[in-house]
Amino acid sequence: MFRLKTIKERLKSLVYAWRGLIYLLKNEDSFKFQSLFSIIFIIAGFYFEIKTSEWFAQLIVITIVLSIEGLNSAIEQLANYIQPDYDENIGKVKDIAAGAVLVSGIFALVVLLLIYIPYLLAII
Ligand SMILES: Nc1ncnc2c1ncn2[C@@H]1O[C@H](COP(=O)(O)OP(=O)(O)OP(=O)(O)O)[C@@H](O)[C@H]1O
């Protein structure tokens, strides 16, 4: 009985998480933009028939970027909620969260360049 309730609760958490993902896709421009980019790279992966190890690397960087972007949006929402007015500390918190997005973005760019440059050179 207890176990069943736990499973039910877990399923509920999944529904809440799904709701959060839909919110990000509908309302957060940066998340939408990065999702679009991710889809383009997934299509490129099929087009160039990249190796399994390259698929792993690509999917990992996509997951990292989208996850950190989602967390950044959550921090922005929370910051706007607790302090809608100008506040130096809130600005710092938002800058730090944006910095984390930048780190993952640079890392993703380097990995994707390492994957695709050889394929692009081969068709030139
Ligand atoms: N309440 C605030 N007080 C002080 N500075 C702020 C405040 N809100 C935003 N800022 C500054 O403006 C920058 C941009 O914040 P903003 O909330 O507009 O995010 P954004 O980068 O436009 O993200 P998104 O486009 O995803 O909404 C912050 O990194 C911070 O430097």
Largest sheet: none
> Count of helices?
4
The helix/strand class is mainly alpha
Strand segment tally: 0
Uncertain runs: none
Strand percentage: under 5%
Bound molecules: adenosine-5'-triphosphate
Rounded mean pLDDT is 96
Give the count of structural domains. Answer: 1
Helix proportion range: over 70%
CATH class, named Mainly Alpha
Shape: flat
CA gyration radius, whole angstroms: 19 Å
Order of SSEs, N→C? HHHH
- CATH fold description: Helix Hairpins
What is the second-level CATH architecture? Answer: Orthogonal Bundle
Euclidean distance between termini CA atoms:
63 Å
Compile the SSE list and pairings:
Elements: H1 2-27, H2 29-48, H3 52-82, H4 88-123
Helix pairs in contact: 1-2, 2-3, 3-4
The structure holds adenosine-5'-triphosphate.
Membrane topology: Multi-pass membrane protein
Protein name: Diacylglycerol kinase family protein
GO molecular function: kinase activity
